Amino acid sequence: MSDALLNVQNLEAWYGESKALHGMNFDVRPGELVTLIGRNGAGKSTTLRSIMGIVGKRTGSIRFDGQELINRRTFQIARTGIAYCPEERAIFSSLNVAENLTLPPVLKAGGIADDALLRQFPNLQRRLKSQGTKLSGGEQQMLAIARILRTGARFLLLDEPSEGLAPVVVKEIGEQIKALKTQGFTILLVEQNLSFARKVADRHVVVENGVVVDTLTNSELEADMARVKTYLGV
Ligand SMILES: Nc1ncnc2c1ncn2[C@@H]1O[C@H](COP(=O)(O)OP(=O)(O)OP(=O)(O)O)[C@@H](O)[C@H]1O
């Protein structure tokens, strides 16, 4: 699609000899929040890792903001304005919140300034001096998201931010993600939690065995939950 910010075509990816993506095709438009949904092992996380250039081998095309990323290295991809928040959150346990926040380098102009960031994430402001290990799962997730917002990236790859969190915290994370969309960030979100996904997303891309098998707007999903539940086996 010509107005896409990200356009993925025939994306294949491997871990060693083992092929995980078999020709993914989808796009994301500027300002959109798109989810990748599908069963365990479908290839959702691998898609994010492939966009970021952190799988063993990948082929096909990943066009972002008019540039081809398929042969670029991760640090070059980061400089185009894409940031990745992994499922495991990757908080440095020996560093405190302030140190974790400021560790990733600012790569582009337009990142959220530290004081604005702490206003946006008041619970991090309260825990600035707390060590990574002392944070709750929700605080770790907020920190993992907050620290990529300083870098100047405008396209966020978020891997299962709701995972392992209590419903009240999931709701809070959902509000933060919606606020990011309102601020103009474009977001590609991997999500197993359908009730979370439908509250935040514009569109859903269904992944099965390393390919895209369906794409639905959020209203289509609301109108036909059965269609998606079949894919997810729920
Ligand atoms: N580091 C790895 N080494 C080898 N194979 C992997 C690795 N990570 C994932 N895979 C395999 O790649 C395929 C896709 O996995 P992926 O993690 O992308 O799925 P997913 O849809 O994100 O599911 P989940 O939510 O369970 O992580 C699976 O068959 C998985 O076993």
From TrEMBL:
It comes from Pararhodobacter marinus. Residues 6-234 form the ABC transporter domain. SUPFAM superfamilies: P-loop containing nucleoside triphosphate hydrolases. It comes from the Bacteria. The lineage of its organism: Bacteria, Pseudomonadati, Pseudomonadota, Alphaproteobacteria, Rhodobacterales. Keywords: Amino-acid transport, ATP-binding, Nucleotide-binding, Transport. Pfam families: ABC_tran. SMART domains: AAA. One of its GO terms (molecular function) is ATP hydrolysis activity. This is ABC transporter ATP-binding protein. Belongs to the ABC transporter superfamily. GO terms for biological process: L-amino acid transport. InterPro entries: AAA+_ATPase (IPR003593), ABC_transporter-like_ATP-bd (IPR003439), ABC_transporter-like_CS (IPR017871), BCAA_Transport_ATP-bd_LivF (IPR052156), P-loop_NTPase (IPR027417). PANTHER family: HIGH-AFFINITY BRANCHED-CHAIN AMINO ACID TRANSPORT ATP-BINDING PROTEIN LIVF. Coiled coil: none annotated.
